[in-house]
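Review box. Two proteins, two foldings.
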Amino acid sequence: MITVHDYMAIDPLALIFSGDAYRILTEKLHPHVPKVSEIQEVVRAMTAEERSFALARARIFIAHSKAIEEAITTLK
């Protein structure tokens, strides 16, 4: 069974830099721009079970994101 904890890691930079400095640094090192081709490269190396797990997690994040968006946009 695959669990999220099997894949969690702590970025050592997060232990060194403050919140704002860390965000600036990580954005420069790893911009938050999804690149489908890079994701596909990783997915090709995954087993069918790993792909199913990743897809299920992505769908969970989508559901949570939609709930957050609705909560914020409908707030009165």
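Next protein.
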Amino acid sequence: MFEFIILFTSVVLFAGILGYTLVVFKEKFYLKKNIIYIDNRFISQEEIEDTDMQEFFLDGTKLKAGDEVSILTKSKKKFKGILLGAVKKEQSIKMITYANEVIKLKIESINQFKIMSKYGKFFS
């Protein structure tokens, strides 16, 4: 019985390490091909195509689509979510919040922001 438990935990550990390694290789492939993968079924293709900039500077900080940010507006509203990109002609950014709503914020309405997590930071 004890040998079975050791064998079972060894197989589960090996499967976990193999799965994690495959996920890391998949993310590395996406980064090399400049593909930003946001796994959310509430985002339509039109919302993604509406953004024309995937990498941009905001207040001197380089942001990229896929970054997790927390934004405080001048009207004291707080939004947390994942950046989809920026719309240059409207001077705004689009993000999907954790409540699965896609919002567009004008850059001049942003009081402060904080980067929670950078997209692909594992390889930076």
